[in-house]
Design brief:
Helix content of chain A: 55-70%
Strand order of the largest sheet of chain B: 3-4-9-6-8-7
Largest interface: A-B, 29 and 33 residues
Number of strands of chain B: 22
Shape of chain A: globular
CATH superfamily of chain A: Winged helix-like DNA-binding domain superfamily/Winged helix DNA-binding domain
Oligomer: heterodimer
Order of helices and strands of chain A: HEHHEEH
Strand content of chain A: 5-15%
Number of helices of chain B: 31
Number of domains of chain B: 4
Helix content of chain B: 40-55%
């Protein structure tokens, strides 16, 4: 459990990453994150919504109301160009950062 | 307009009926339904599935609110701010409800602090700050005289005499009106009631013109009422009129029976007017005004018995009036070198003159009470900081939900504001009660006491205090929150070790502040206590227990000087025969009641005084042999008064040891001759030296000389208007008051008793002011020390709680419980020690302020400093040791498992 830091900034990038494959509604985004983070994130799932609205305000995603496959009304989020650019920039930065941390740890434990 | 109204309405409405609110709730409901469905598919019962979905999601309403609150589309600008402020306040109040102990402590501390400060301020405001209740009060001045070293005497705030008044009236070019003011005690004989003494303003009619006050009924005094032969007219004070005449509006023109001490017959005076409520000048206890005898024909400049007030003419400033006065004084010095060498009139703004005596006391107390308020603020800041660490989990959640740093800071400041406001409102209650208690405790020696109250200025001050306490107690915890890193709180499960550590120096700084301030207050109280003890331990040179002093005032009519003394002698003889009385005698005044009775005297065959040389002065007492014996005054050389000292015999005097040492050092004064008073009276032979007394006050070792009552008839008849019977009782002296009153009635049923007090009572009254300061400083110091102790205790308890892990590690590495305890105590005592050092340094720097209030105790008295520092250290140690013991009980295994 220790080390599962979830920076608000990190959550933003994860959401953007989820949306990189196409528009999704909130529940789908949540499912996507849960399935890929091996459920190590000890954060209430509700955190998703303030984050979604925050990044929408920043112009990284846009939203519209639509229908799901089963015909239910839901709000769909879609990545904007700005959001895609931010995602690439941030993932590169995070990769670089985690690589650096990992090599440091590797080096230290050897 | 309508839109604004709607916005305001929506502030109170929950849930917010905005589009965003509806949409967010729909989104969340959709999410929860999908999630529950997912869990149902996993095999859960529908109800259980929904419960788990909500559990995993977190409080849906809180999430919705978090989204709405960050949405800028809903509201913008000041209204959005107001909105979130209301939210913050609501949140804060909910928090307080959850922590009643914390809230009660913080509010109580702030209520005490603001309450005490506001109470003292309202006294300062009413006495010092508020303008006098007359038109254009800044243009009013008091005129008194001053003796400088050149005259041989150094007396400030001395009265003026009538030739000076008339000359100034004729010669000044700066005043539009000048008045003469003094007070007299006179006998009022109500119809069908016992005669009693009242205080009257004896004033020139121009006083009313100078102050520009109009009567409520009738008229004030006219110029024709004054002069060398004053008309028998009086103007009544509002309270007196209500009390004695039930506010009868037909009072004007009616006669009242008044006995004037210096004005010949008892007269029927005609009431010509009634003043409005609240007018009392020059003293608060003045009940009527009558014209002062002012005779332009009296040109002898040696007598001084009243003060002057004046109103600056339009366009004239105080410096211009002072320059004008300087010119007049230069001319008087030329014209009357005998009287005006080293003796001048001078101006003071009237308000300063009225409150001069109280100002240092009040400012001292205001400063002291500000310290209490500061300690209360530091205390609340400590509490808020401690709570901040506990609340880091809450902040982490709110940060994750999108609340910005600014918002969290504002939340904390809003909470501090709520605490300060609650404290302030309660503080006003404390202040309202406190002001009455203060005035009662003070004992009525405060000028303008009747003008003290909670007014707009005081309310404004209280509001300012609320803002200041908010900032003082809330800023540092809020800054802590601003530095707070939400992610870290999640990282270590919300214990917030990292963020908590950062606030350690801050918390210790607060401990230093609290301990330092409390120490300064304790020192002040300690020094006052020592000074008061010293004062009360002074040997006054006479017996203070078992003596009753009964003062009588004689009307001029029906009593010659000889008859007055005979009356007193007869009275003493009768009282002496009563049971429970072991002695009685006649004196001019009771001891310790008047502190300004020094007069000049002349020693025979001494060379003329050189300019700048101080002439001989002493305190003049008339006392019979039996009075001296009752007081326990003994002759150390020569003899006491005896039967030889008859009215026509050679004039005699006694001097006390103080006078003998000062003016006849190494010589025997017995047989020398002196002349006293400023008049050209006869030389008196000194027949004895008596034990030193402090007749004028415990802190004043004034040279004292006595004359016998028998010769006073011839030599100082003008002193015999009021005399005092000193009665020595075998038991409780206050029981003899009835005996004496009956004896007086038997001799003359119409003679009023001015006062009947025991010497112990008078003694208590003579130290009322220092006792007042001492009591208040002690109360302040006790509050300060209590708050400081709570502060230290809280900080240590918190440190132990925060360091549980670390202590666990140390314990598992082999440190014993005592070692851990010792470590905590030694570390937490460091800021206490620093606080003591800071407090002592600050007290030393401020010692000059207190020095003026102390008697025979240095403001840097090492004993007091040492004792107080030790006491503070002891209490602080206790406040550290007790919570630190918790560290000993920490189970290493438990502590580490929490990790």
């Amino acid at each position: 459990m220790a080390g599962s830091d979830l920076y608000t900034g990190t959550l933003d990038v994860v959401i953007l990453k989820a949306l990189a494959g196409g528009p999704m509604h909130g529940y789908a985004i949540g499912l996507w994150i849960r399935s890929r983070s091996r459920e190590v994130l000890d954060v209430k799932e509700g955190v998703l919504y303030p984050a979604l609205h925050r990044i929408e305000r920043r112009g990284w995603v846009r939203s519209r109301w639509g229908r799901t496959d089963t015909g239910r009304r839901a709000k769909f989020y879609e990545l904007t160009e700005l959001g895609r650019a931010h995602l690439e920039e941030e993932s590169a930065r995070l990769a670089e950062y985690s690589e650096a941390v990992l090599s440091l740890l590797d080096h230290a434990t050897r | 307009m309508w839109r604004i109204f709607r916005r305001f309405r929506s502030v109170d409405r929950k849930p917010l009926p905005s589009r965003i609110g509806v949409e967010v709730r729909e989104e969340i409901r959709f999410y929860l339904e999908m999630r529950a469905e997912e869990l149902r598919r996993g095999g859960l019962a529908p109800e259980e599935a929904w419960k788990r979905a909500v559990e995993a999601f977190g409080d849906p309403e809180a999430v919705a609110e978090a989204v709405i609150s960050q949405d800028p589309g809903g509201r913008r600008g000041p209204l959005a701010f107001l909105d979130s402020l209301v939210q913050d306040a609501g949140h804060g109040l909910r928090n307080f409800r959850r922590m009643p102990g914390f809230t009660a402590t913080a509010v109580a501390a702030l209520a005490l602090g603001t309450g005490a400060t506001t109470a003292i301020f309202s006294v300062v405001s009413g006495v010092i700050l508020r303008p006098l209740p007359y038109p254009e009060p800044d243009r009013l001045v008091a005129i008194r005289s001053r003796w400088t070293a050149e005259s041989g005497y150094e007396w400030d705030r001395y009265p003026v005499g009538s030739p000076e008044y008339f000359d100034y009236l004729a010669e000044n070019r700066s005043m539009s009106a000048v008045g003469a003011v003094s007070t007299e005690r006179l006998t009022f004989r109500p119809q069908g009631g016992d005669p009693r003494m009242v205080t009257a303003g004896a004033v020139s009619p121009s006083m009313f013109r100078t102050l520009q006050v109009a009567p409520l009924l009738g008229r004030t005094l006219l110029d024709a009422d004054g002069g060398p032969d004053p008309a028998p007219v009086v103007v009544l004070a509002h309270d007196f009129w209500l009390r004695e005449f039930g506010g009868d509006s037909t009072i004007v023109g009616r006669a009242v029976e008044l006995g004037w001490e210096n004005q010949g017959n008892d007269v029927s005076s005609v009431v010509v007017g009634v003043m409005p409520a609240g007018f009392a000048f020059p003293d608060p206890d003045v009940e009527m005004w009558a014209p002062l005898l002012l005779d332009p024909a009296r040109t002898w400049r040696g007598g001084h018995w009243f003060t002057m007030i004046a109103r600056l003419a339009p366009g004239v400033s105080i410096p211009e009036a002072e320059a004008d006065m300087a010119g007049i004084m230069a001319s008087w010095r030329e014209r009357y070198p005998d009287h005006h060498r080293g003796h001048f009139l001078y101006l003071t703004p009237l308000k300063d003159d009225l409150v001069a005596d109280a100002r240092p006391t009040l400012l001292l107390l205001l400063g002291a009470v500000a310290f209490v308020l500061l300690i209360a603020c530091a205390n609340v800041a400590t509490l808020l900081l401690a709570r901040g660490t506990v609340r880091q989990r809450e902040f982490a959640v709110r940060a994750a939900l999108g609340a910005g740093r600014g918002r969290l800071v504002r939340q904390l400041l809003t909470e501090a504001l709520l605490l300060a406001t609650l404290g302030g409102v309660l503080g006003l209650v404390v202040a309202t009660l406190g002001v009455d208690a203060l005035l009662a405790l003070e004992g009525g020696t405060l000028p303008r006491g009747q003008e003290v109250g909670i007014d707009v200025r005081v309310l404004g001050f209280a509001a300012l205090m609320v803002i200041l306490t908010t900032l003082a107690s809330g800023l540092m915890p809020a800054r802590e929150a601003a530095l707070f890193d939400g992610s870290r709180a999640f990282a270590d499960g919300g214990r917030g070790v990292a963020a908590g550590r950062r606030s350690v120096p801050l918390r210790q700084a607060l401990v230093v502040t609290e301990v330092g301030l409390a120490l300064v207050l304790l020192l002040g109280a300690g020094l006052m206590a020592r000074s008061l003890r010293r004062t009360l331990r002074q040997d006054p040179g006479f017996v203070t227990t078992g003596i009753l002093a009964v003062s009588l005032t004689f009307p001029e009519s029906g009593y010659t000087a000889q008859e007055k003394v005979d009356f007193m002698t007869t009275l003493a003889e009768r009282v002496r025969r009563a049971s429970g009385v072991s002695g009685a005698g006649v004196a001019s005044r009771p001891p310790l009641l008047y502190d300004n009775s020094m007069t000049r005297f002349v020693i025979e065959d001494r060379p003329e005084l050189q300019p700048g040389e101080e002439g001989p002065t002493g305190s003049h007492v008339m006392a019979s042999r039996s009075a001296l014996e009752a007081l326990g005054v003994r002759a150390v050389r020569g003899r006491l008064f005896d039967a030889r000292d008859v009215v026509d015999g050679p004039p005699v005097a006694l001097v006390d040891e103080t006078m003998a040492e000062r003016y006849w050092p190494g010589q025997d004064p017995v047989g020398r001759r002196i002349r006293f008073g400023m008049t050209d009276s006869e030389m008196r032979m000194i027949v004895g030296v008596v034990t030193a007394v402090r007749f004028d006050g415990l802190t004043i070792q004034a040279p004292t000389f006595y004359e016998p009552e028998t010769q006073a008839v011839r030599l100082t008849p003008f002193h015999l208007g009021t005399m005092t019977l000193l009665v020595r009782a075998a038991g409780d002296p206050s029981r003899l008051a009835g005996t004496v009153r009956d004896a007086v009635r038997e001799l003359d049923p119409g003679l009023p008793i001015l006062s009947a007090r025991t010497i112990e009572d008078i003694l208590g009254g003579s130290v009322a002011r220092p006792r007042f300061i001492f009591v208040l400083l002690t109360v302040f110091a006790a509050v300060a020390m209590t708050l400081g102790t709570i502060g230290v205790y809280g900080v240590v308890a918190q440190a132990v709680a925060q360091r549980t892990n670390e202590i666990g590690v140390r314990r598992s590495l082999g440190a014993g419980p005592r070692e851990v305890w010792g470590m905590i105590v030694s570390q937490e005592m460091r800021p206490v020690a620093m606080g003591i050092a800071v407090g002592v340094t600050a007290a030393l720097a401020m010692s000059r302020i207190l020095a003026g209030f102390l008697f025979q105790v240095s403001a840097t008295d090492p004993w007091t400093y040492g004792l107080v520092a030790l006491g503070v250290a002891a209490v602080a140690t206790l406040a550290t040791v007790v919570p630190a013991r918790r560290a000993m009980r920490i189970d290493p295994v438990e502590a580490l498992r929490m990790e």
